Amino acid sequence: MRATTSARRAGMRAGVAFAALVTAIALPAVAAAQSTPAGQEAGAATTPSEVPPQLDTTAGSTAQSDQDSVGARDAAAQDIIVTGSRITTGGFTAPTPTTVIDSGAIAANAQPNVFTTIAQLPSLQGSSGTSVNTFSTSSGAQGLSSFSLRGVGAIRTLTLIDGQRVVGANVTGVPDVSQFPQLLIKRVDVVNGGASASYGSDAVGGVVNFITDTRFKGVKGNVQGGITDYGDNEQVLVQLAAGTSLLDDRLHIVGSTEYARDEGVGGGEFGIGLAGGRDWFKQTTLVNRNVTNDGSPQYVLRDYAQSITFAKYGLITAGPLQGIAFDQSGSPFQFQYGSNGVPSRTSSGAVIGCFAGFCQGGDLSGNVDAGRSLLSGLERINSYGRIGFDFAPNSEIYVTSNIAQVKTNNQPVGGQNRPALTIQCANPYVPAQVKAACATAGITQFQFGTSNAALGNTQVHTDRRQYRFVVGAKGRQPVFGSDWSYDIYVEHGTNRTKIDVDNILLTNRFNNAINATTLDGAIVCANPVARAAGCQPLNVFGGNPSQQALDYVMPANGPRQRTRQTQDVASLNFSGSPFSSWAGPVSLAFGGEFRHEFYKVTADPYGAGIENQPYDSIYPFDPVQLPGGNNWYAGNYKNGTGAYSVKEAFVEVDVPLLNGDSVGRASVNGAARVTDYSTSGTVWAWKVGGTWDLPIDGFRLRGVTSRDVRAPNLSELFAAPVTTTQPNFFDPFRNVNVLAIQNTIGNPNLTPEIARNTTAGISFSGSSWAPGLSLSFDWYKLRITDVISSLGAGDIVNLCFRNVLPETCSAFNLNNQAGPNFINVQAFNLASIDTSGFDIEASYRWQRPLGLPGRFTVRALATHISKFVTDTGLTGTIPNDTAGVNTGNTPDWKWLAVQTYETDDFSLLVQERWFSDGVLGHQYIECAPGTCPESTPQRPTIDQNFMPGAFYMDIGGTYNITEAVTAYAKVDNLFNRDPAKSPFFVNPALYDVLGRTYRLGVRFSL
């Protein structure tokens, strides 16, 4: 263990030292850079007032400044690499719509993490981040920043650095953008469409490609701070980058380092009070009346919902004593139910006048949802270094290092709610008044529920460390009379993730601790086995448990998971023009790649089980623990390991068809890729498309259709098993109930998902009669089949029994004479996703508006989702269309608009973000009492089926203090717009949950 830890620390130190070394070597370039005006030196840092923020909507185009930043010796690097294609021939235009965001746009948005800037684009729906995944203890995705294009999930979006893959930061294989070097980003290409034929698996929704400035010269830096209107989420960001060229401009060295910290926004108190005094939370709940045919809606949406199954410090929830609650001191009082509810005092626990399970209003102090973190705290340290050497004209060898550490923390929920406990009246902690009431009622025990506020709140901490190294060569050489580009690299990446959960109870210890008795005049645990093993009695009434009891039920070492993921890639790509047709040069690209992915995860024995992880000094033997694991209240992590290898080859060709003033310029583009997975065999991906620059000045038609693939990831293939017991599982083969063990496991027999992607559009830009105006419209349709999705245990057995899905028959045995009955719950290639819509992008640049100095730029991007239909593939289910469902990720409309005015001295920015009104779900029938049809599982009735959209305005500006120093300010959510109420607490994937945020900073470039 010590050797492993030392190796990790040595690797981290080596990476930091490498970045520091290249930065130190680069610093002599400061003196040379100071003699050149800011923004004129090749690769110099630019401010918004020097280069306008660019959202280039022309497919395959890049900012001219990208070409200008290339060193004279690196002619090969002047080839514009169009993300979504492997062809690098000059003048080539890809048919797939691509949005380009340059460094100016990133700087103008003034976010502490570039992930936020990119995720604001309308075509990105369902991206994660520090405001998403904060409500879960066990997912392992807390604070993970990953992109999702077209709403089909981060696992179907390929994220690259300089066209190269990045090791995953989660067992799903998605990288963490927080680990990327950010100050040296030159531009980000966002491909809105499939690119598997060019880049391989996962590029189903599209590609996000970060292009770094490999020839940067000079020194630049950025210092930024921020805070919300509520005085929380204090932010700090410090970035520094340096670059230089030596040996007659043949040796190129760049390096960067950065530190960022977001304090996050933690949970509030129990009840409805959020952190910082935010008052938008109303404990909105979608209540099921469980009545389907009385003319009133089955589901009703109600604010200030109050559970009748627990209270902050305890509530008797059924029987003759129902309604007795306990205050912090443990004294009993009569609980105040909302809705003027009256406890029925029956074994059912119903409250007369309330809904099933909920009242409205009353004593809300025990509600736990307000304890959820609104934003995970995040701390990231990133170092990056690159050394390149031009060993020949137009040819370079290079090595890069990216070492990063990202820590996050969050609070999933308030307390550790236990709604269905049984307490003995003889328990010595039961107040005398309640004991007397037990005797009067003739009962010996009662049902009890508590928020467990006295135990405090659970905290989840993650620590992700990335070690990524690349060695490569690229350039251009003449072959048989024409220039050919080559790009060869080898990459090794490792990501180590730690997840630690603090302040969480062990279920069996808690159950034994609250079952107290008196022995020899002392209060002890009633279970002699638990007592002998150190059980300490816990007073569950009120908020004053002993420290010994707290230490027993919540030991210092909580749930733990340790994951190591590795990625090894060897890739080679060639591109050139072997000959010309009647319309121009024919471009060709070909190459191959080998990739190996591996993961191993280990967990603590209380969660994983002693067979998978033996007891040790940190997690000692405890006879009350279940040997199979699952002992924690939450966070029962498991052990697992898996690996797969990929071999693939591709070819891409672009053939000009037309080239003349009267017919315009047209070409057809095609690609094919064959991929062999060690787990699932061979699969093909392909694309066919083309562009036509019309003879009408400025207009271009484009279209492409492709077959894209996503291979099952390590988690789906080799998921760490989770075991639960099903005591009364129905066996349809014998028509009896049986005791069965449910094993949630991976499925090594999964096959790749297959997608068909089609886009078609028209763009306008670069016209002599409308200079500065760019417009585009692109329609898209994406259908994914064989989608990997999980089935429940009952579905697996029934699908086999009805001979609907015979492959599920091997996943269970309910008549096992040699051992326990079991059902292996696995993922299968059953479901499908079908989505379509269109993108609109527009920009206009106006030099010297109304005779004023400077430039005025207007640009806007919008995405409309016509449909987003998910079909489980199971008989008897109805496909679900979630387009416009604002509890999810895919609103009908989403747009982003930016207006900037820039001079040589200052700039002003106004940005608008908006998405349209929506619904809770399209399956619902909205109706008023007395008018509702009968409610069915497929078409349930509801009284309110509306979720509003939202409009957010951001403003910002810069001022050039000197040519080298720029001060800037930014205000996000200017009008402090609150999120809409939701029956699922809140939807941070769409709504701003923080409120107005202020940022100030200074950038410099030398």
TrEMBL record:
Write down a Pfam family by its short name.
Answer: Plug
The UniProt entry lists membrane topology as: Multi-pass membrane protein
Query: TonB-dependent receptor plug domain: from which residue to which, for each copy?
Result: 94-207
Q: Compositional bias (Polar residues) spans? A: 55-68
Q: Where is this region: Disordered?
A: 40-74
Is the keyword Cytoplasm in the record? Answer: no
Question: What compartments host this protein?
Answer: Cell outer membrane
Record's InterPro entries? Beta-barrel_TonB (IPR000531), Beta-barrel_TonB_sf (IPR036942), Plug_dom (IPR012910), Plug_dom_sf (IPR037066), TonB-dep_rcpt-like (IPR039426)
Signal sequence coordinates: 1-31
* Keyword set, alphabetical order: Cell outer membrane, Membrane, Receptor, Signal, TonB box, Transmembrane, Transmembrane beta strand, Transport
- Start and end residues of each TonB-dependent receptor-like beta-barrel domain: 466-974
Q: Which protein family is it in?
A: Belongs to the TonB-dependent receptor family.
The protein, known as: TonB-dependent receptor
Species name: Sphingomonas citri
